[in-house]
Amino acid sequence: xxxxxxxxxxxxxxxxxxxxxxxxxxxxxxxxxxxxxxxxxxxxxxxxxxxxxxxxxxxxxxxxxxxxxxxxxxxxxxxxxxxxxxxxxxxxxxxxxxxxxxxxxxxxxxxxxxxxxxxxxxxxxxxxxxxxxxxxxxxxxxxxxxxxxxxxxxxxxxxxxxxxxxxxxxxxxxxxxxxxxxxxxxxxxxxxxxxxxxxxxxxxxxxxxxxxxxxxxxxxxxxxxxxxxxxxxxxxxxxxxxxxxxxxxxxxxxxxxxxxxxxxxxxxxxxxxxxxxxxxxxxxxxxxxxxxxxxxxxxxxx
Length: 302
Description:
The chain is an alpha/beta fold. The protein has helices spanning 2-6, 10-17, 22-27, 35-38, 55-71, 90-102, 172-178, 269-275; strands spanning 44-48, 79-84, 107-112, 123-124, 137-142, 144-146, 159-163, 166-167, 185-189, 199-203, 209-214, 228-232, 238-243, 247-250, 259-264, 281-285. The chain has eight helices and 16 strands. The protein has a ten-stranded parallel sheet, with no helix packed on it.
């Protein structure tokens, strides 16, 4: 079996390696001398520290990441993903991100949780990333602090996921979106930080897919008034909006929307339906007393 695998072409081996966690790809060098040169051409790296709590063992992980990235020989680094726990410092992540940028990374994904740390130190992205022209996909999850500079400009970014990240200033989210002129997909989960986004504006002519979720049972809104999500995306084709606390405002008609899932405490369902005249699949969750009668659209009451 080993001989049969070794006889596969380099292109096919690289495709197989691309679907494996990076630590397993590296260990394949123990199985075949030929793979010692092939694995360094893998265009996708996926690093997972296993939520390591032992600093000495985490040091081994740091060395593994540094060595692996330094040995890479592929012409383009397509994807760089990190799943790290509380031992990962902001300095470590900044170093790895900068290395990825030097190597021309197109997709960057970071999942970071620090729930066992006494000190609150979210990872902050290097300023240079906010003006990195090659970035096409950015996915950030949990303890990552967004401190967006005024000169943010991501001309190639088409996919942006912000899952319960921490916003350093009240306007950094809108500033970030304004620097993404060709963005096509936006996923926003505010469940752990609803209080940091009072009014969230999505005004993007290129946007095609939008998902906004807030399932926090007790949002920390305080006494600062209404919270609202304002959407102005004329090219939108897919809308997922799940939020039982914020209001939803659709500024303009969105004639391209064909699939919509809306779960919201909404007092004007007729206005929503009028804004998406071409919708073909609709799941609308509203108080039963507000459900309109008739029509050919499928309505789900709750």
